[in-house]
Amino acid sequence: MSMIAAFYSGKSILITGATGFLGKVLMEKLLRTSPDLKVIYILVRPKAGQTLQQRIFQILNSKLFEKVKEVCPNVHEKIRAIYADLSQNDFAISKEDMQELLSCTNVIFHCAATVRFDDTLRHAVQLNVTATRQLLLMASQMPKLEVFIHISTAYSNCNLKHIDEVIYPCPVEPKKIIDSLEWLDDAIIEEIAPKLIRDWPNIYTYTKALGEMVVQQESRNLNIAIIRPSIVGATWQEPFPGWVDNVNGPNGLIIAAGKGFLRALKATPKAVADLIPVDTVVNLTLAVGWYTAVHRPKSTLVYHSTSGNFNPCNWHKMGVQVLATFEKIPFERAFRRPYANFTSNNFTSLYWNAVSHRAPAIIYDCYLRLTGRKPRMTKLMNQILRTASMLEYFINRSWEWSTYNTEMLMSELSPEDQRVFNFDVRQLNWLEYIENYVLGVKKYLLKEDMAGIPEAKQHLKRLRNIHYLFNTALFLIVWRLLIARSQMARNVWFFIVSFCYKFLSYFRASSTLKV
Ligand SMILES: CCCCCCCCCCCCCCCCCCCC(=O)SCCNC(=O)CCNC(=O)[C@H](O)C(C)(C)COP(=O)(O)OP(=O)(O)OC[C@H]1O[C@@H](n2cnc3c(N)ncnc32)[C@H](O)[C@@H]1OP(=O)(O)O
Ligand SMILES: NC(=O)C1=CN([C@@H]2O[C@H](COP(=O)(O)OP(=O)(O)OC[C@H]3O[C@@H](n4cnc5c(N)ncnc54)[C@H](OP(=O)(O)O)[C@@H]3O)[C@@H](O)[C@H]2O)C=CC1
């Protein structure tokens, strides 16, 4: 019997960010392993014209939740969606709902955040700092609360090279920032933002660091733990391999590469690609929830959910395997044949951007214009290159995260829990994982049918022929121009032609002799 699963049975669990990538997998695993939990409260806002109910209905009827329904057929009854906007005062939760949350909640998983790298400082502080403080305040008024789990990121201290499982202080107190945002206007905030974030690469990682500090300062006598995942990727094993549902992190780049838009990346091939499967993060999170509630550590423990020091993979290996998978299971209607060129050199990177990205986009847009269609490739390419440049910081560096707490927890689990809540990435086979990942991107993000693979392969062959034809034509044009202008080029040309002629004559003569 799993002790972790038993712990969550009969519990009322509050999840923020349950409609997000990590939140959905967390909810699924909880329902599948502890089907007799009492209720999962999820704080949700209406979005994209959908009501709360429509959003929940769509999530629970998605492929991700198919397996869970076999063990928990009444899954809809276990979820109680509560209207909430985390950027508002008191989260805009109604009095009745708030009362219910305060009196019933046993466990909190705080996953909600804005993960955009370029969000405004005001919004990112509201979500990643102020909302965390507000939730901690709510938690302190919950008599039945046993544990509060805060999801942060391994990059909250990415301005350091070696990162321990401790909360590092930020140069400016979060409270001072929260207070000043109340009276400063937006223009001034954006002006001071770069000065505040100092050597953090973006607003996201900076505000996640502030969020951790808030957790430390406002923890009162709460039983809290922090999880710090690195780059969260598709599922490894559960509920099935390769599940993924948004374009964040590597996902968008895999699409851009598979469709042949992105063929070079400013990346350090030997740098560690610290990906961690989302189900691994979820298993660790649930195990930490159990351990923190049952063992009540004296201080707030931080757990790194990273792969680098257990089972390192670098960007070169990842790129090669991603490309190999595109060969086997290509994406449909690619713009060009997929290719992956990783370079850490600024000059080479500029060259590849001009030759491999911008020039083909401009040529294609000319073709669209000539055929009476609206040009769109340059705009799309600019968007992709902007995204790639935003991620560059993370693919050109390696970090060392210590994992003492995570390893300690692994050794505390029973063999059954180690199996059901496996977060040991030493067992992960990268080649297999990446193949399933790319397949998952094709199936669940691009919604492409596997039956289209032969046609996709044919299309790639056609692209290869076009590529050869184009290169040959280009070579001939350049050569012709050179010959017209330079005596030296003409001499080389006559030398090659006479050499070929002699070779052919010799070949013909010797084959005649044999006969
Ligand atoms: C050369 C061959 C390569 C072979 C492939 C090998 C794979 C290597 C992958 C390497 C990836 C490394 C990733 C490192 C990530 C580090 C993460 C740190 C860990 C965290 O805690 S962060 C959590 C993750 N957060 C994010 O990833 C958010 C990043 N996104 C943003 O901040 C913004 O989207 C961005 C990039 C600033 C763009 O903003 P904006 O210009 O305003 O555009 P939109 O957001 O509105 O989106 C417009 C359009 O682009 C699509 N989109 C969004 N994100 C991506 C993406 N990552 N890749 C591709 N496309 C993306 C979006 O869906 C929109 O499309 P529409 O069709 O709706 O217009
Ligand atoms: N993905 C990654 O690579 C990594 C993620 N993390 C951390 O993991 C956690 C989850 O990330 P992930 O699932 O990827 O992110 P997503 O962007 O997929 O999910 C974010 C969640 O937060 C919710 N949310 C955002 N703003 C509000 C708001 N104003 N009111 C209510 N809910 C809101 C979103 O709701 P809605 O659906 O309505 O937008 C969504 O459910 C975050 O804390 C992130 O920092 C850490 C390391 C890496």
TrEMBL record:
- Kindly state one GO CC term assigned in the UniProt record: peroxisomal membrane
Listed under GO biological process in this entry are: long-chain fatty-acyl-CoA metabolic process; wax biosynthetic process
Q: What is its EC number?
A: 1.2.1.84
Q: Which UniProt keyword terms apply here? A: Lipid biosynthesis, Lipid metabolism, Membrane, NADP, Oxidoreductase, Peroxisome, Transmembrane, Transmembrane helix
Enzyme class at the top of the EC tree: oxidoreductase
Every Fatty acyl-CoA reductase C-terminal domain range:
357-448
Q: Can you tell me where the transmembrane regions are? A: 466-483, 492-509
List, for all copies, the residue spans of the domain called Thioester reductase (TE). Answer: 15-284
So which domain of life are we looking at? Eukaryota
Membrane topology, record value? Single-pass membrane protein
What InterPro entries does the entry give?
Answer: FAR, FAR_C, FAR_NAD-bd, NAD(P)-bd_dom_sf
Please name the GO terms that the record assigns under molecular function: alcohol-forming long-chain fatty acyl-CoA reductase activity; alcohol-forming very long-chain fatty acyl-CoA reductase activity
Q: Specify the protein name.
A: Fatty acyl-CoA reductase
Q: Which organism is it from?
A: Piliocolobus tephrosceles
Q: Which gene encodes it?
A: FAR2
